[in-house]
Amino acid sequence: MPKRSSTLGRLAGWIASAWAAQALACDPTVDLQQPCPESNWPTLVGAQYTFVRQHQSRLDSPYQGRLSLDPNGDTEQTHTIGLYLGWALTSWAQVYLDTEKFMGAGVSGSVGLGGLTNGDVVREGAAGLPKVFYIARQYVRLMLPLAPGTTRVERGQDQLAGTEAATRLEFKFGALAASDDFDHNRYASSTRTQFMNWSLWDNTAWDYAADTRGYTYGAVFGFVSPRWSLKYGAYLMPSKANGQELENAPRRARGDNLELTLSPAESGTVLRLLAYRNLARMGDYREALRVAAETGAVPDIVADDREGRHKYGFGVNVEQPLADDGETGVFARVGWNDGNTESFAFTEVDRLLSLGGQLSGSHWTRTADRVGAALAVEGLSGPHRDYLAAGGSGFLLGDGTLTYAHEQILELYYRAQLPWPLNDSSVVFQKYPLKLQVTPDFQYVRNPAYNRGRGPAKFWAVRFHLEL
Q: How far is CA 110 from CA 115, 384, 416, in A?
């Protein structure tokens, strides 16, 4: 696996010389035509702590396998800590470095569902992964203005404050998360502040390249403008399904992603069209079934791994603001992949339809509060369901048999933002205001692991989130 620290080291000389040459005369509050960061010093752009305590109910379970939801129910908790740093070397070059730590576990060992119920566990994934601080992201971002005019951007995780060219070419490379650059949605993209279910904060039919914590190495190139954007990203795939180790040969194993974003009207409608193709050492469901039939054994997708196999898919993502300066709005996603080769990096979903919305608390004098409600329906390809019905297992699913039905998910949450008095009285907190949020969350899942014979299951959670 490539070493992230050595990547940063090779950039150090270029960073120092570029920063030394940068003129510090621009003012983003005055010069609206030229891109300008608020500061050219290394900056803390964000920090967060998120705690989730979740309880899974008992469920009807006439049969179960090694990767089934626990029929007796379970209660678990997770913690994540993150520090996010940025440095504007020039008006067109930025460097970011993020470090995170994960602790705890998901209910039922984070298996037994296509749409798992706590998005923070995607950062951990594999049993035995050490609970230590790790480098999450480490990358360079370059921006080439193509026309006069800028847009104002506020400080946030992996975003330096200032102004950026509204129309530009953009290039990023280093240690990245593919979900940072593709399949965004204003109302359903953050498991720490919005929906927690995997199939609601992302397109789970998009088997995006990542290690078990959700990160990889790659590069993104894009054209960005106020009305439309086009991005292409290529990322290293893991060496095995749900693996922490990444391949080091892009020609042998990589994930290619292309997304067109359209925002043509003043109504605020945003439409994103995604296509992807993964190349890796993957198993084939039909081939695994054929071998099992010949040998009389249980099908094993891992034993059938071969280099050069691929998976492709598509996604449609819509967000529609309705009121309250866009804080009230609705969203929908549709996802599809061919489902011939094994689910490899994200989760075991081949078909997805999700829709939902967010309501601003301004309607009951709680301006910073939010209510969210959404539904997701997931499905499997024919070969994938036949493999599970024959007793095969993936890395998340394996009840030992299958009485197929779509996995159906309902999620409701209320996010309450609590006051922090020092935000007004402390110089530090005026510069870095602290958000404290408490979110009760409820999820109801029918046909867990696509099995009509098991479930339903209920999940209650409370999420505490602190953010600078």
A: 10, 20, 27
